[in-house]
Specification:
The chain is mainly α. It is built from 4 helices and no strands. The protein has helices at residues 5-20, 24-52, 56-80, 90-114. Helix 2 (24-52) packs across helix 4 (90-114) and helix 3 (56-80) runs antiparallel to helix 4 (90-114).
Length: 115
């Protein structure tokens, strides 16, 4: 990329944002927000798929494929790194938190429908 003013501004803002998220409490708050967003997403998907009642199998297949893809991405990157420097990137933790929140939300929806 060329060294333009716009690329410098974007790089500087990205560095400031990653420094901002370097604080453990802010990192934890971002992860909690992604868990809650995953739970909301699960409620949203189950409501939309249940209302239409035609794409239930397709929606379930897409959710399983996305969930398994995220799991492969997160846990495959752990295997490639040495055990001493096991520090995940924030993006992988956010994806994993979103996946966990979505799975939890789908279980809660299933329990609500079963009662």
């Amino acid at each position: 990329m060329q060294n333009t003013r716009l690329s410098n501004i974007i790089d500087r803002q990205f560095r400031r944002f990653t420094t901002f998220l370097g604080n453990p409490w802010r990192r934890l708050s971002v992860l909690i927000i992604t868990l809650l967003a995953g739970n909301f997403f699960a409620t949203l998907i189950s409501t939309i798929a249940g209302q239409k009642a035609e794409l239930d199998v397709v929606a379930a297949m897409v959710l399983v494929l996305v969930s398994e893809g995220i799991s492969w991405l997160v846990y495959n990157s752990d295997r490639q790194r040495p055990a001493t420097t096991l520090q995940r990137s924030l993006l992988l933790e956010v994806l994993n938190g979103f996946k966990i929140g979505t799975t939890y939300g789908l279980f809660v929806e299933a329990f609500k429908l079963g009662s």
